[in-house]
Amino acid sequence: MTQTPFDPTRRPDDAPPAEEPRLLPTIDAASPVGRALRESFERLRFAPNVDPAIREAAQSVLDGRSSPRELLRLPQMQPLIERAASAMRADVEAMTPEERAALFTPPGRAGRDA
After folding, report:
1. 79: closest CA among 107, 54, 114, 58?
2. 29: which DSSP letter?
């Protein structure tokens, strides 16, 4: 019996459909990635130290009135994106080669010979 590899962009077969709309068309809202995406936008929406334009745009994405792309294109988002990219770069540089390779291992391939 062949088991279907885990796909973090799809909801588990036994999970009920999400009540919220999809934030991205290819990611099921009830999937692990869909839930993490929604939580990220909710954190932006309610973060007290974030520019009000970003909070408003995050709410617009959560309501389905605009896309995540529109939020990311806001000039106010650029410093946040740059800080996140710098932090991620530092994290990746601090990883061992094995840890870095694991970042790029497709779901369901962990522990298998390539």
Report:
1. 54
2. T
Q: Decide if 50 is inside a domain.
A: yes
Is 92 a member of any domain?
yes
Q: Into how many domains does the chain fold?
A: 1
Instruction: Check: pTM over 0.85? Answer yes or no.
Output: no
In a domain, 22, yes or no: no
Query: Does a structural domain hold residue 108?
Result: no
Q: Domain range for residue 70?
A: 32-103
Contact between 42 and 54 under an 8 Å Cβ cutoff? The reply is no
Q: What are the mean pLDDT values of the chain's consecutive 10-residue runs (114 residues total)?
A: 63 68 81 88 92 95 92 94 95 94 72 48
Instruction: Find how far residue 4's CA is from the centre of its chain.
Output: 22
Residue 106, Cα to own-chain centre: how many angstroms?
Answer: 16
Residues 44-64: tens digit of each pLDDT: 999 999 999 999 999 999 998
